[in-house]
Structures are given as C-alpha cells and as structure tokens.
UniProtKB/TrEMBL annotation:
InterPro entries reported in the protein's UniProt record: Longin-like_dom_sf (IPR011012), TRAPPC (IPR007233)
An annotated GO cellular component: Golgi apparatus
Organism for this UniProt entry: Cajanus cajan (Pigeon pea)
PANTHER family with a match to the protein in the record: TRAFFICKING PROTEIN PARTICLE COMPLEX SUBUNIT, TRAFFICKING PROTEIN PARTICLE COMPLEX SUBUNIT 4
One Pfam assignment: Sybindin
Protein's cellular compartments: Endoplasmic reticulum; Golgi apparatus
Highest taxon, organism lineage: Eukaryota
GO BP: endoplasmic reticulum to Golgi vesicle-mediated transport
Protein family per UniProt: Belongs to the TRAPP small subunits family. TRAPPC4 subfamily.
Gene3D superfamilies linked to this entry: 3.30.450.70
Entry-linked SUPFAM superfamilies: SNARE-like
Name of the protein in question: Trafficking protein particle complex subunit 4
C-alpha cells in the first residue's frame, strides 16, 4: 500500500496494491493517522541528530 499524508497527518492519497484484506476508507484514515503519529514520535525520540523519523515500513507479511 502507498500512503501520502500531509504535515498535519491528513491522508492525501491512498493506493492499495495487494489483493488480500483490502481496507475500507475509515481504516485507511486510521492507519494514516497512526503512521503520522509514529513518524512524529520517532523524530523526537531519535538519539541521532538530523534523523527525520520513520519514513518507510517494508514487510513481506504485515
């Protein structure tokens, strides 16, 4: 799946490339919001200066 979110965490674009377990619109909005929160928290907690936080999550099975 591809999620594009804005700086405030709003979902701008969503595309599902998988065939199994498609999510409805509300679930997609929840995942985008969760992703934005994880990105913002990881940016603040990173011990490495200049770290931009989590930008990519890649998995064979999720």
């Amino acid at each position: 799946s591809l999620y594009i979110i804005n700086k405030s965490g709003g979902l701008i674009y969503y595309k599902d490339y998988g065939s199994a377990g498609r999510m409805d619109t509300n679930d997609s909005l929840r995942v985008a919001s969760l992703w934005h929160s994880m990105h913002a928290i990881s940016h603040q907690l990173s011990p490495v200066s200049g770290c931009l936080g989590i930008e990519l999550l890649q998995a064979d099975i999720f």
